[in-house]
Input
Amino acid sequence: MTTVGERLHLLYELNRGLTTFTDLTGLLRYVTRRARDLFQAEGCALLLLDAARREFYFPVVSDSDQSSEARLTTLRFPADRGIAGWVLQHDQATMVADVSADPRFFAGIDQETAMTTRSLLCAPLRTRSGNIGVIEVVNPTPDSLTQDTLEFLETLAGDVAVACEKALLYESLRGQVDGLRQACRIAGFGLVAVGIIFALGALFGHLAYALPLSELPTRPGMWMAAVGIAVGVALLAVARGWLVDRRPLTSG
Output
């Protein structure tokens, strides 16, 4: 049976990682491995929801059987199936001491991986926008099948959900920044090209009237060209990251 100190240490490590992590998968692998050790379980896995396809998938698994772990990461199943589906839909953590006696249990995953699930703990990954999946502890020791342990897993799930939500936010921000830089790049090249055209037009017009070249900089067309080129160059600088922080967005 794990101590309160061990559980608090895991939560501390997870929350400390949330402030510095650059690799969400690495952080979650650490968390699932530590949770499996704390519960002395055979496995611990995240099941995230693919909202578009309404399916569960396994981005992170920690299992005592490495071959089962590898197979799990390739599997998907409908998000309304099994105890995981029930937890997701009802937004309620649950503990099952004997899955063979629970009608909610979906045996398809065991059949695909040659695993034997006997008991499990499962809690939803809650975010402000809704549940994004569940965390499962498979075959923990009998003394871990307590309400206190389930409440701890639910607390852990909340912190894991924050990590996932933060990573998704950074991914969205990174996409927006890349889109803005592409727009700046296109607009910058366009303005530089227009500026050059204005400059050439002003030059040819000036020569056509045989005016002194010293007066060329005062021509309106040259001013317009200069402004266009200057703004275009500034936009290209933004696109290249010269005028903003060039460090890539990371999850920490």
Remarks:
- DSSP finds seven helices and six strands in the chain.
- The chain has a mean pLDDT of 82.
- Residues 108 and 156 are 27 Å apart (CA to CA).
- The chain has two domains: 4-171, 175-240.
